Amino acid sequence: MLKFIIAAVALLAVAGGLTYGTLGRGSDSAEAEVRVVRWLNVTVAIPEGSGLIPIQSYWQDDRPVLRVAPSYDTSLGVAIDAMTGEVILERVPPELRTVLDQMLQNITVATLDRSTGPWPYSGEPPNVPREKWGNITFVPPDHAAGFRILLMEADSPDPSTNLYISNGRSYLIINVETGAVEKGIAAEDDKAFARFLTTVEYVGP
């Protein structure tokens, strides 16, 4: 049985307590005013300094959804069908109505072009600090590439702590203590996941 480690998830802002969260970095720079985040077919631009965080998740009926919520209460905000762009939930406090309405007006719904998509789909790894979890380090994918990375525990048959890396279609599971890798990768995602794996390093206990 796998279970998500809630307290260990890092998002764009400090937001402990999220079952579904994402490690890694967004498409940002010193000049950027928005953070571009993708999940499957949907891309949103979240204003920097807005206090909003993305949560790449699944709905009760197992539909993939991209939620955008205030870091102080992740039950609020909006949930967007990650395949169609349909807004399936709005719980918007008055102080966030303007910024969320502007974001929703600029949703992009399109199939990812893997030949030009953000790293690891194309290009070189970004020059950003490496993430370290347990005995492994790695370069985090760009949020605009639509990857999510979760820390999770397996309590049977052999207890372990793992990173779960997924783009909603394919996945890697990496044991953070041993570096062992399990794969479930569609053919069209093979190159991207291979590029990501080239940055994973086992640093030992």
Give structural notes.
Helix content is 8%, strand content 35%. The chain is mostly beta strands. It has a domain at 22-109. It is globular. Residues 1-31 have low confidence and may be disordered.
List keywords for this structure.
mainly beta; about 200 residues; five-stranded antiparallel β-sheet; four-stranded antiparallel β-sheet; 2 helices; globular; single chain; about 35% strand
Secondary-structure content class: mainly beta
Secondary-structure element pattern, one letter each: EEEEEEEHEEEEEEEHE
- Count of discrete alpha- or pi-helical segments spanning 4 or more residues: 2
What percent of residues adopt helix (DSSP H or I)?
Answer: under 10%
Our measurement of the CA-to-CA distance between the termini, rounded to an integer number of angstroms, reads: 25 Å
The largest beta-sheet arranges its strands as 1-11-12-13-14
The tally of beta strands, per DSSP, is 15
Strand fraction:
35-45%
Query: Rg, please?
Result: 17 Å
Largest sheet: 5 strands, antiparallel
Uncertain parts: 1-31
Mean pLDDT: 85
Q: Quick one: overall form?
A: globular
